[in-house]
Amino acid sequence: MKKIFLLSLTIAVCMFFAGTGYAQSKPTITVYGFDVKASSGFWHDAKWDIGTGMGEMLVDALVNTGKFNVVERLNIGDITFEQDLVDQGRVSKKTGAKKGRMTGASYIARGTITEFDVTESGGGGGISIKGISLGVAQSFAHIGGIIRIYDSTTGEIYKSQRFTRDVPATGFSIGYNRGMIGADLGAFKKTPLGEATNLAIHDIVDFMVANITLEGATWTCGKCGAKVAGDAEFCHKCGATRAEEALYNCPFCGQELEPGAKFCDNCGKQLKDVKCPKCGKKLKPGTSFCPDCGIKVGQSSNVESPE
Question: Residue 13 gets which letter from DSSP?
Fold first, then answer.
């Protein structure tokens, strides 16, 4: 009966993780934005930060694919600020964000915009709506650049691809008044250049979905600290699963710990294979009393297993 129960429990856990799309079963990636090296100057006058804007668009698109575990870096200041509130005494330690537990990215995406311009022919005059003048003419929007994917562990360029998009808009000339693109992105997105930018993001996402997998990535075993292949569900060294909870901080002094540490490098307390000196029951580090025999377990010194 006990074996049947354990088998049922194991199946249920596996089905849970499969059904919820457990985050570690997907490649973990972050976006560091786009550098702008385009020679055109009209968008400088418009004061639109296209590098940051495209970075935000790419993050949003990657999250919506459901194929990646996307970690925040463009707005990481918001996260670190929240964590620092605990140190400032403004948030309780019980409910405050914990440090040292942010998920690392296996892959880093960074782009470079080399071409970003719009050309006009004919037209002139017309009307102006929210800083965008419309006149009878022909316009041609163009964006081009490079997207690179880095291995965050080795620094090697994992994949690199050039992207380019052209969008014609027959019958309208698009004139950009200074300052208006930054003030009204909704209007900008309806322009040929805005459409070209959006299509380029879709092309980049398709490229990343087709080329980035768990193969080549690694995860750190929370039990023994070994580096495990990204597509493996169990540690090849100790057999622990991805879901094995790692001990992040020493329960005695709060020191941040390396995965798999058996002793705290700050206070020297034993963290692994801790047993009650009287009955031999396995205990969690920092336990004050043995739950089986009731003996008080001293925290001032290491708890050694009985001979």
Answer: H
CATH code: domain of residue 98: 3.40.50
CA angle 216, 222, 228 (to 5 degrees): 20
Predicted confidence (pLDDT) per residue in 129-170, tens digit = 555 555 545 667 889 999 999 998 889 999 999 999 998 865
Report the number of secondary-structure helices (H) and strands (E) in the chain: 7, 10
Domain-embedded: residue 282: no
**Distance of alpha carbon 1 from alpha carbon 60, whole angstroms:** 48
**Token pair recorded at residue 87:** 């140190």
Question: Which letter does DSSP use for residue 210 in this model?
Answer: H
Q: What is the DSSP letter of 136?
A: S
Residue 156 lies in a domain: yes
End-to-end Cα spacing for the chain: 34
Q: Confirm whether pTM is higher than 0.70.
A: no
Edge-first strand listing for the sheet containing 127-129: 127-129, 132-135, 173-176
Residue 10 domain flag = no
How many separate domains does the chain show? 1
What amino acid is encoded at 225 in this protein?
Answer: G
Compute the Cα dihedral for 160, 166, 167, 173 and give only its sign.
positive
Structural domain boundaries, residue 123: 27-211
Position 45 in a domain: yes
Paired strand residues for 263? 270
